[in-house]
Each structure stands twice: as C-alpha cells, then as structure tokens.
C-alpha cells in the first residue's frame, strides 16, 4: 500500500485547507485510516481517524468542531477538511492506514504534507 498526501500549504489564521490522501496498491486490505500531525520538537499526535466504512470518526479535542475527516472508498482517498485554522495547527500532516496482514494489522504512512498557519 502506498499513501500520498496533498493539499498542504500556507494559510492565514481563520482560513481553510483540504488535505487528501490517495491510496494505491492493495487497497482492499485497508481498514481504519487517520490523520496525524507532528510539529517541530513535538511528538506525532493523532488528529482524526475514521473506520473502514466511514461510519465512525474520532477527533482530537483540539480540532473538534473545526476539522472533518472523510473517505471515499470508491476513489481510495481520504480527506481532512480543516476550517478556522489556528497558528497552533502548524505541523506536518501524515496519512495513516491500518492494513490487514494475515491475523495482524500493519501501519502504513505517507510522506507528509506541510501545513503552515500564519497569525
């Protein structure tokens, strides 16, 4: 499975961005997916996650009400709509996929896309 993020960039506080994560390869093995972010000097943290059928989502408290995660399984693509962006949202955002491998699940990661929010 390969994951490629896009949609990052520079935006002013209060603005919006939409991130995309396109999956390829053995996409039929992908289960839950999620977005993580990592700011310089900080640990990678979960931003939002979504189940395989898109029926259930989970958000970090810091982004609830501002970010929306979704996925289109027909297009093998996951999205993160980010509204009301704040300078503290500045980070590199990574796409994660839980891929079923036999009895286990393996984490796959994209290369990341930078989001910078100016004040």
Task: Explain the overall architecture.
The protein is mainly β and 119 residues long. It is 0% helix and 59% strand. The chain contains no helices and eleven strands. The chain has strands at residues 2-6, 9-12, 17-24, 30-38, 45-50, 57-59, 67-72, 77-82, 91-101, 104-109, 113-118. Strands 2, 4, 5, 6, 9, 10 and 11 form a seven-stranded mixed beta sheet that branches. The chain has a four-stranded antiparallel beta sheet with strand order 1-3-8-7, with no helix packed on it. The mean pLDDT is 97.
Fraction of residues in helix: under 10%
Q: Could you give the count of β-strands?
A: 11
Any idea what the radius of gyration is? Answer: 14 Å
Segments where pLDDT lies below 50 for 5+ residues? Answer: none
Total DSSP helices = 0
The rounded distance between the terminal residues' Cα atoms is 37 Å
Largest sheet: 7 strands, mixed
Structural class: mainly beta
General form:
globular
Order of helices and strands: EEEEEEEEEEE
Q: What would the average pLDDT be, to the nearest integer?
A: 97
Strand content: over 45%
Question: Which SSEs are present, and which pair or pack?
Answer:
Layout: E1 2-6, E2 9-12, E3 17-24, E4 30-38, E5 45-50, E6 57-59, E7 67-72, E8 77-82, E9 91-101, E10 104-109, E11 113-118
Parallel strand pairs: 2-11
Antiparallel strand pairs: 1-3, 3-8, 4-5, 4-9, 5-6, 7-8, 9-10, 9-11
Task: Describe this protein with a few key phrases.
single chain; 119 residues; mainly beta; 7-stranded mixed β-sheet; 4-stranded antiparallel β-sheet; globular
């Amino acid at each position: 499975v390969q994951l490629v993020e896009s949609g990052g960039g520079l935006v002013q506080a209060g603005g919006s961005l939409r991130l995309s994560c396109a999956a390829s390869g053995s996409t039929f093995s992908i289960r839950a997916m999620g977005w993580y972010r990592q700011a310089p000097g900080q640990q990678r943290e979960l931003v939002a996650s979504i189940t395989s059928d898109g029926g259930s989502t989970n958000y970090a408290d810091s982004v609830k009400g501002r970010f929306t995660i979704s996925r289109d399984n027909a297009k093998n693509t996951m999205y993160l709509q980010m509204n009301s962006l704040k300078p503290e949202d500045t980070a590199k955002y990574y796409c994660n996929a839980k891929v079923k491998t036999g009895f286990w699940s393996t984490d796959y990661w994209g290369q990341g896309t930078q989001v910078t929010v100016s004040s």
